[in-house]
Amino acid sequence: MEAAYLLELIDESFARVESHYRCLLSELEEAEIHDFRVAIRKVMPIIELAMDIEEESRGEIRLRENYSRLKSYFKDFSDLRDIQVQIISVSAYKGLEGYAEELKLEEEKLKDSIGQKIELWSVEEVRSSLESALKSTFEGMDSPELVRHYMRRAKVLRKKFLKRIKELNEDYSSYHKLRLALKKYRYHMEMAGSDGLDEVLKRYQDELGHIQDLTVLLEDIRRRGRVKEKALRGIEKERARAAEKFRKRYLKNLKARLKIEGH
After folding, report:
1. What SS3 class is residue 215?
2. Rounded CA separation 86/214 (Å)
3. What residues contact 213, with CB distance under 8 A and at least 6 apart?
4. Which residues contact 103 (CB under 8 A, 6 or more apart)?
5. What is the DSSP code (8-state) at residue 38?
6. Which of 28, 64, 65, 104 has the most C-beta neighbours closer than 10 Å?
7. pTM for the model
8. Which fold has domain 1-141?
9. Environment class of residue 134 by beta-carbon count within 10 Å: exposed (0-12), middle (13-18) or buried (19+)?
10. Shortest CA distance to 128 belongs to which of 192, 57, 62?
């Protein structure tokens, strides 16, 4: 890993964030919101690596301030993204037509709210400040030093990931915790370039994401209290099937890939 490679990666990553942001200013569609959030996720590991290197220096403070702003942009879309995913998911189940219409009305309200908010964002300013800080961190660092910091962080994230694998149980929240740890580990590993593992992890992440989407859907329907439990049986069965599939097929393969034992 060379400093020049990381600096090029920074430019490419921020360019994607800005490109998707400009698209969102004209249309808040589900696919574009997803791509914008993914673009931010791919920037985060670079900043986190730099913060580890800088530690308690003044440079780390500047990085953390802008990191928080970028993270807030990601979170601002969380509610709208959840609603849009639910609209897609609910179409596969009978007896939820009224709920689907309610979601669409809520989607439009959220679009109006977030649409006004993102016009006030300073994405270009955040990019400029972060790029300056990141270049200050990475420029002049030799390859062995960069690799040492990269591997140290990879070790920490891998440990958290393995912990979540071993903690997986019948509680569906454990699947969500595993997915979050997997994403952090995967995006960090992607920083060094693909070795095939990131595509495998992406497949596992998607399977866990499907389980989480169904969990969010069930929780939201029950919170609103306007649908009979009988209408939710299909969603419950699909979630149970997806969880069993992950445990029996993907979890075994994942353990083999990561060379870990037991559960």
Report:
1. helix
2. 8
3. 85, 86, 89
4. 83, 86, 87, 90
5. H
6. 28
7. 0.88
8. Four Helix Bundle (Hemerythrin (Met), subunit A) (1.20.120)
9. buried
10. 62
Look-up of token digits 């939201």: 220
Q: What residue type is assigned to position 2 of the chain?
A: E
Which residue in this structure is represented by tokens 């693909």? 194
DSSP string for residues in 65-84 = HHHHHHHHHHHHTHHHHHHH
| pLDDT digits 0-9 by tens, 187-244 | 998 888 766 677 888 889 999 999 999 999 999 888 887 677 777 888 999 999 999 9
Distance CA 18, CA 25 (A): 11
Distance CA 64, CA 50 (A): 10
Query: CA distances (Å), 247 to each of 104, 174, 252, in order?
Result: 34, 12, 7
Q: What CA–CA distances, in Å, run from 194 to 57, 123, 190?
A: 32, 28, 6
Residue with tokens 């069965």: 237
Q: Where are the domains of the chain?
A: 1-141, 147-263
Interval 65-108: pLDDT, tens: 889 999 999 999 999 999 999 998 888 888 787 888 889 999 99
Give, in order, the Cα–Cα distances in Å from 88 to each of 7, 21, 55, 105, 198.
38, 23, 43, 14, 26
Per-residue burial over 2-25, b = 16 or more CB atoms within 10 Å of its CB, e = otherwise:
ebeebbebbeebbebbbebbebbe
The CA R_g of the chain, rounded to the nearest whole Å, is: 20
CA–CA distance, 168 with 261 (Å, rounded to integer): 14
In angstroms, the first-to-last Cα distance of the chain is 34
Which one-letter amino acid corresponds to residue 105? L
